[in-house]
Amino acid sequence: MLKPSLRKKTAKRNAIELEHNRLTSLINSMADAVIAVDANLKVAIYNASALNILDSNQDITGKPLGSVLKPIDKDGLAIDMADFVAKTTRPTTNRDLLLKYSDGSQINLYISVAPVHLGYGAGGDQGYVVLMRDITQEKSLEEERDEFISVVSHELRTPVAITEGEISNAEFIVKKHAKKGSDTKVLQALDEAHKQILFLADMINDLSTLSRAERGVLQIESEQINIYDFLHELKDNYHQDAAAKGLTLKAQYPAKSLKVTTSRLYLREILQNFITNAIKYTEKGSVTLSAAASGKNGVSISVADTGIGLGKSDQQKIFDKFYRVEDYHTKSVKGTGLGLYVTKKLINLLDAKVDVNSRPGHGSIFTLTIANTPDKKK
Ligand code: ADP
């Protein structure tokens, strides 16, 4: 007969064992690979799918994570998993790594790393859970889709540009030969056709940049850009569009010496999007371009408008794909909801960040900040 205290202990041990077995069978039945590591990044728990994805049949308990999981990036460079995981302070995912096997084949990997309290060692040490999935098929479908969009948008560009030019010509001719009061219907029709074709051209442009950004084939060619000259150029390019809506395009120029090293093409594309939006979503007042030094060597460039503004929750969502604010002001303006999504992709590509400061009815300020550290690899 067991002593009551001993019986209690045995019951507790059994309960813990049961719980442990439950958890083990739970993670073993998961299709995703799971590896839990302790604070020293040594494997504490793993499931059958983990061995599957690592193409191994050896016990990996206690082994350093960096020695069992050795992914590479798309350029074939080895990724130090120990470093990757140790830097993780909040759940992080990555869909761009690959795993290469000894026979030369490789898979696209989805990796999610989350810091957790595993309860190992004294005081329940911190650990990490690494979750992995083979996303080779998904990736190849995504690539096919992006490739398709890229080809289609490329093919559409020329006919749309020609049609746009022809409609412009027709408008010009009708205007020139129009007798007073007559031909207004023809002009109206041409004007509408022109607006629609310009919208189509914008959409094709966005789709094309988007598919290139998603395929990661956008090349960054950095150069030193004088911000004073750059703002001048932008103002020259857009003051007519602003004036056509009765708006003033102003600039608060920075010191003539202010420079940044980045891609001129993408910087222009990002700011053009902010400026065209500022003009689109402002009924009266002005659009102001400004720039200033930021941090040690960085630069921030802002586009401020006196337009319809944005509520807090919309400010989070406007960079989502196809998102357009649900109100009559926005609905009365043509748009695809793709511009800022593409812009955000380009901003990420330049390692820059964007801040939105806005209030409904009080205008918006979009600020782009680019850190300009000399040793930034580009
Ligand atoms: P769209 O083609 O609709 O302009 P964007 O992705 O460029 O697409 O912008 C997404 C949405 O963000 C717009 O539909 C609009 O609701 C809002 N938005 C963007 N810029 C501004 C701005 N300067 N002022 C107010 N709303 C804006």
Overview features:
single chain, 378 residues, alpha+beta, five-stranded antiparallel sheet, five-stranded mixed sheet, 11 helices, 45% helix, elongated, binds adenosine-5'-diphosphate
Describe this structure in words.
The longest helix has about 40 residues, at about 135-175. The radius of gyration is 28 Å and the shape is elongated. α5 (about 135-175) packs antiparallel against α6 (about 185-215) and α7 (about 225-245) runs parallel beside α8 (about 265-280). The mean pLDDT is about 90. The strands form three sheets. Strands 2-1-5-4-3 form a five-stranded antiparallel sheet. The protein has a five-stranded mixed sheet with strand order 7-9-10-12-11, covered by helices on one side. It has helices at about 5-30, 50-55, 65-70, 80-85, 135-175, 185-215, 225-245, 265-280, 310-315, 330, 340-350; strands at about 35, 45, 90-100, 105-120, 125-135, 220-225, 250, 260-265, 285-295, 300-305, 355-360, 365-370. Helix content is about 45%, strand content about 25%. The chain has about 375 residues and is an alpha+beta fold. The chain contains eleven helices and twelve strands. Adenosine-5'-diphosphate binds near residues 281, 310, 330 and 336.
